[in-house]
Every structure is written in structure tokens, then in C-alpha cells.
Specification:
The protein is α/β, with parallel strands linked by helices and about 240 residues long. It contains 10 helices and 8 strands. It has helices spanning about 25-40, 45-60, 65-70, 75-80, 95-100, 115-125, 150-160, 170-180, 220-225, 235-240; strands at about 5, 10-15, 105-110, 135, 165-170, 185-190, 215, 230. α1 crosses α2, α2 (about 45-60) crosses α3 and α5 runs parallel beside α9. It starts with a strand and ends with a helix. The relative contact order is 0.19.
């Protein structure tokens, strides 16, 4: 049975491993570059740098937040370094673009990555112009999802009403906060465990189920195409029909 999303007017998409398949494995590149950055910034051998990196992720939500909290690190060089990626594994997803553009209301990317990373990946996917805006970690004041302050800043920036919003994520823990705020939640799952992170910070496989997750899908495009949504307003239809 298709998802009933007829109430939805705000559509919120995580970026990595949500808009593109987890099999692209961009995080493998990010993971290596984070270890390199920690090693250089803290003058640590690679093995110790990786241990610190993973500990900060577990304790602070992101490696960056740990570096900022413990060492007062300037976040800009970190974000630039770890997101300097080879995007060749990321496919062009024209069908996904059509599915997103057909949704009524406003659409946003909300990521724990940088805004620049979101811009580049969205462009590689062929989705430039499909979203009203991209909201990166710098826009939250470097508070990562699932922290409530990240959501608060996102809502304040765009006037999001969670009761008429749907959030798409590959990380169950991020959907817990969204659910508690009133979002309809959709977990985009994969059998690929790309993270190598502590257990509660890993992505979910197909057998994941939780009270805070309303819908599960292993294909975002198919899910959006099949979902029942409200009829687009005239303004939405005109926006979708304008050449990009």
C-alpha cells in the first residue's frame, strides 16, 4: 500500500545515503579524510587519530563537534578538507528529480554535512533547482542532527511546521527527534553498513523497525512516485512547469 502523505506541505531530505544510494560509499572517502585531518590537526599517528575520531563521533554527534568542543577547532578548514571528494560514484537521477518536483509544497535538503557539499552532490545528482534551499551544518551553528537545536534553527529559518512535514533519513536516530517534533518519518534503508561507527550511530538495514519510524523504503524514487500526496496548488504547478 502506498504511503498516505496527503497532509504534507514541507518535504525535508537528508543528503548522504538518502538522496543517493549508500552503495556509492562516499563516506569511505570522508572517513579517510577525517582521520587524516585529525592526525594533522592534533599531531597524532594515524591509528590514534582514528580512535579519537570515532570517540568524538560517539560522544559529540560528529567528529567536527568533538574537535570544536575539546580543542576549539575552526570548523571551516575541516569541512573543506573532508568534503573534497571524488563524486564520480554518484549517479544522475532524473527520475528522482521528477518525483521530487511533483511534490506539492516546499522541499529542503537538511544535512550534517556542509552546505557546499550539499550543493556539489545535488548538482551531480541532477537535482539542482529541485529544492527551495540546502541547510548545512554551518547553518545550525554546528549543532548536528539529532540535536533539537539543529531542528530549531532549521524550523526558524524556513518556518517549518513539523505537523505537515515529512523527513527522509538513513539514520534512525535522526528520525527520533523528527518524530517527537511531529514529523512523518521515512527511513531510507540499505543493507550496506557504510559507517563503521558505534552501533547506535549506524545506518539501518531492511529489518529495522521502531515506533518513531512511520515508513521504510529501500528506494526513495519508487517511494515518492507511489506516495499519495495533496494536489499541487496552482503556484506549485507553475513553479514545476517553469524551465530550469
Amino acid at each position: 500500500m502506498s504511503a498516505d502523505l496527503t497532509h504534507a506541505d514541507h518535504w525535508v531530505f537528508d543528503l548522504d545515503n538518502t538522496l543517493y544510494p549508500a552503495e556509492c560509499d562516499l563516506f569511505a572517502q570522508i572517513d579517510v579524510r577525517m582521520t587524516e585531518f585529525v592526525s594533522n590537526a592534533l599531531s597524532l599517528p594515524s591509528e590514534e587519530a582514528r580512535r579519537v575520531q570515532k570517540q568524538y563521533y560517539a560522544d559529540h554527534g560528529t567528529t567536527l563537534n568533538g574537535l570544536m568542543t575539546v580543542h576549539g577547532l575552526d570548523p571551516a578548514p575541516f569541512l573543506e578538507y573532508v568534503h573534497d571528494l571524488d563524486l564520480s560514484p554518484v549517479p544522475l537521477l532524473i527520475d528522482l528529480r521528477h518525483a521530487i518536483e511533483a511534490l506539492p509544497g516546499r522541499k529542503y535538503v537538511f544535512t550534517n554535512g556542509s552546505r557546499g557539499h550539499a550543493d556539489r552532490v545535488v548538482e551531480k545528482l541532477g537535482l539542482t533547482g529541485a529544492f527551495d534551499d540546502h541547510f548545512g551544518i554551518e547553518d545550525t551553528g554546528y549543532a548536528p542532527k539529532p540535536r533539537i537545536e539543529a531542528f530549531d534553527r532549521f524550523h526558524e529559518r524556513y518556518g517549518i511546521d513539523p505537523e505537515v512535514a515529512v523527513m527522509f533519513e538513513d539514520m534512525p536516530r535522526n528520525l527520533k527527534t523528527a518524530h517527537d517534533l511531529g514529523y512523518t518519518t521515512v527511513l531510507v534503508h540499505s543493507d550496506k553498513d557504510w559507517s563503521h561507527e558505534p552501533e547506535n550511530a549506524r545506518p539501518a538495514g531492511a529489518n529495522h523497525a521502531a515506533d518513531h519510524i512511520h515508513y521504510l523504503t529501500d528506494c526513495l524514487t519508487s517511494f515518492l512516485k507511489a506516495a499519495r500526496t495533496a494536489k499541487p496548488s496552482k503556484a506549485d504547478q507553475e513553479h514545476q512547469e517553469r524551465p530550469k
